[in-house]
Design brief:
Radius of gyration: 18 Å
Strand content: over 45%
Order of helices and strands: HEEEEEEEEEEEE
Helix content: under 10%
Shape: globular
Length: 185
């Protein structure tokens, strides 16, 4: 696959270029996971095929009706090497910042709502989970009363192949997760 890296002003892509782009999208679909448990493990999703990954969550809510955070723990664990923060703003204009240092989990997003209809949506990028360098993430999310963003790092040179989604305080997390890999070239 050859995809032209740069075009100059006035240069028009050829039909062959468009066909190449269509056959090789930047995001490559990997799998879909239906989440409905306190802990959902996603195995063998990270590999040398991609450096970076996109996780798209939809209709995410807790069956307890409580507002909480779904947490991410990378398979193989990094012990207490996770460092992250999350910022939310709700419809009343209240700003909240939560952070943690040395946790075994990442704060992914704020989740509120009691059904998929009023559940949260989350767009999360994970960078270099399979490579033996620090693994980082960013996420953006919206929930039934606002939205926010998060980011963090795992200070470890461990190569991860998967992760677990864990409901904070033992709450059941429900929703749909689609996983994509970013094409390398």
């Amino acid at each position: 696959m050859t995809v032209k890296a740069n075009y100059t002003i006035g240069q028009r892509p050829t039909v062959a270029d468009f066909n190449t782009f269509a056959a090789n999208p930047a995001l490559q679909y990997i799998t879909q996971v239906n989440i409905n448990a306190v802990t959902t493990t996603v195995s063998n999703v990270f590999s040398s095929t991609y450096n970076n990954y996109r996780l798209e969550w939809s209709g995410v809510f807790t069956t307890s009706g409580a507002s909480t955070f779904p947490l991410i723990s990378l398979t193989g664990g990094a012990g207490t090497a996770h460092f992250d923060g999350i910022k939310t703003t709700d419809s009343a204009g209240t700003n909240t910042f939560n952070n943690q240092n040395g946790s075994a989990y990442w704060l992914t997003a704020y989740v509120a709502g009691t059904t998929a209809l009023n559940g949260s949506t989350i767009s999360m990028d994970i960078y270099n989970p399979f490579n033996t360098v620090d693994t980082t993430y960013t996420s953006k999310f919206s929930f039934n009363q606002g939205g926010g963003f998060a980011g963090g790092i795992v200070k470890s040179s461990t190569s991860y192949t998967g992760f677990s989604i864990v409901g904070l305080f033992g709450f059941n997390v429900t929703g749909t997760l689609r996983i994509y890999g970013y094409r390398k070239a």
